[in-house]
Amino acid sequence: MRRFALSNLRDYGMGKKASEEKIIEEIQYLIKVFESHEGKPFNVTKSINYAVSNIISSIIYGSRFDYSDEEFTEMTQSATYWLNWTSFNPTLICPIPNSVNGSEGFKTARHLAQHGKWLTLNPEMRVRFQDKISRPKYCERLRMPVNQ
């Protein structure tokens, strides 16, 4: 699933200069919203949700929505509502049965905990995690001495 998601995101421009430019463009709109409140306190949640939704929209569809577009605000609020519910209770997305046809269909919490413990205690896995974390950003790779 992870590999599928990453390959599709790369197809849509993840890690490329074009997606970085779209993010910077959307940040300009977000700054205007912040400035419109003239330093007064306000809830930034909706504005940030709209910005994130617009970034995804501009990468996938090639266009963005205005923050005052009624259809856009309804879709974003609906998605936020369902994401909050499913993050609170992931079984709403895919119910996990206790057994399938009388046999254990899914690993138990104990097995998952043991697997997590193995991942963190295994020196090779720790090195692989650190390598992933330490990788430079895509735009920084071109400026590295190795590539010059």
UniProtKB/TrEMBL annotation:
One of its GO terms (molecular function) is oxidoreductase activity, acting on paired donors, with incorporation or reduction of molecular oxygen, reduced flavin or flavoprotein as one donor, and incorporation of one atom of oxygen. One of its GO terms (cellular component) is cytoplasm. It comes from the Eukaryota. This is Cytochrome P450 2K1. Keywords: Iron, Metal-binding. InterPro entries: Cyt_P450 (IPR001128), Cyt_P450_sf (IPR036396), Cytochrome_P450_fam2 (IPR050182). Belongs to the cytochrome P450 family. GO terms for biological process: organic acid metabolic process; xenobiotic metabolic process. The keyword Ion transport does not apply. Signal peptide: none annotated.
